[in-house]
Each structure stands twice: as structure tokens, then as C-alpha cells.
Design brief:
- By secondary structure, this protein is of the alpha+beta class.
- The chain has one domain (41-197): OB fold (Dihydrolipoamide Acetyltransferase, E2P).
- It is built from five helices and five strands.
- A five-stranded mixed β-barrel has the order 1-2-3-5-4.
């Protein structure tokens, strides 16, 4: 009787394990498919707008932990050919202005340098952004023309979390268009992998 009971228990444990493994595999495949769709949408947005999509490479790899100067950032973002730039950004705020709206996004140039984009946009563009979901993890593929990188602000929320106040460079320009992409973190993953791969202590 004991052997039979042990066998039945083992069967149910094994069945549960297999079902849980299949569920996790299905979730991963679904997540990978969603990431693939997001990346395709981001690439299509960049191509349609003629935006510079690889600007962050200048500050990646060995430079991923560098705290950047405004002049370094301006040399990459302020384009003499007037081409827009593609950002992966988090929406921070949207306010009215004399010409429509002023919209603020936060982006990262690398792991150590945060940038606040302050962009002019039309009333129609502002209204479109306001209709998107407002969850805290939601992010945007953003296309903008940057006119200047001047000054900096301090993020006091870092101090409240027990860290030092975070220095944030400020870039100003014109909003072109954006696409809400939800919880997308591939840019962070790429930065971390690039910095790790470039580390002198990395073991291959």
C-alpha cells in the first residue's frame, strides 16, 4: 500500500513539475515574441522618420559607466544635418505652453548618465500622448530633433531612496513622434552586456 501511495504521489509531483515547466516555457516564448514585435515596431519607426537609432553606441562598452559631460552628449545628439534621433524613453510630464505643449521624457545615454528631454510639441501631439497608458513601467520609442544640451537638474528621488542625488543632463528640442511600447528594457540589458563584455576582468 505504501509503495502504491508513494507512486501516486510521485506521479502527481512529476505531472505538476511538467505542467509548470511547460507554462514557463510558454510564457518565455510569448515574452520573446512580444519583444520581437516591439523591436520590429521600433525599427520601423526609425526607418520611417529617418532617425538616428544607434547614437548610444558612442557611450556604450567601456564607456557605459562614464558620467558624461554636456558637450559630449551635444556632439552626438545635436545634428548638423537636422536628422532626428530615436530614444527609448520614459514619460515624465506634459505641460501647456504658448505654442501647444511642452513634454518631458527621461532617457539614458548609458548606465551612468541620465538625460531629460524637454520637447516642444503641438496640441494634437500632446493629446495623442495623453491617451496612452500611464503605468509607471511604460516606455516609449521616441523620435525628436535636439537643438541643444544645456545645464542639468538633480533628481531628489534618488536621495529619498538612500542614494546620492542623481545628476541629469538637460536636452531641448522638438518632438516628432512616438510609439508606446510598454515594459521594454532591452536597452538596459544591452548596456550591461556591453559593459561586462568590455571589462578587463571578464572571463571567456
Amino acid at each position: 500500500m505504501g509503495l502504491v501511495l508513494a507512486g501516486v504521489c510521485g506521479y502527481f509531483v512529476l505531472s505538476h513539475y511538467r505542467a509548470e515547466s511547460e507554462r514557463k516555457l510558454l510564457e518565455k516564448r510569448r515574452s520573446d515574441a512580444q519583444d520581437g514585435q516591439r523591436q520590429q515596431s521600433i525599427a520601423a519607426l526609425a526607418e520611417a522618420s529617418g532617425a538616428i537609432a544607434d547614437w548610444r553606441r558612442a557611450f556604450g562598452g567601456k564607456r557605459a559607466m562614464d558620467s558624461l559631460f554636456g558637450a559630449e552628449l551635444a556632439s552626438v545628439l545635436v545634428r548638423t544635418d537636422s536628422r532626428p534621433v530615436l530614444f527609448i524613453a520614459s514619460l515624465r510630464d506634459l505641460n501647456t505652453s504658448t505654442t501647444g505643449y511642452e513634454i518631458e521624457f527621461d532617457v539614458r545615454a548609458n548606465l551612468a548618465s541620465k538625460v531629460r528631454l524637454i520637447l516642444d510639441c503641438s496640441s494634437e501631439q500632446g493629446a495623442q500622448v495623453m491617451h496612452n497608458p500611464r503605468d509607471s513601467n511604460g516606455r516609449y520609442a521616441l523620435v525628436a530633433r535636439i537643438a541643444s544640451v544645456q545645464g542639468e537638474v538633480t533628481d531628489q528621488s534618488s536621495t529619498e531612496e538612500g542614494k546620492g542625488a542623481e545628476r541629469i543632463l538637460v536636452a531641448r528640442g522638438r518632438y516628432v513622434q512616438s510609439l508606446y511600447i510598454g515594459a521594454y528594457w532591452n536597452d538596459f540589458v544591452e548596456d550591461i552586456e556591453g559593459w561586462t563584455d568590455s571589462s578587463p576582468g571578464k572571463k571567456y
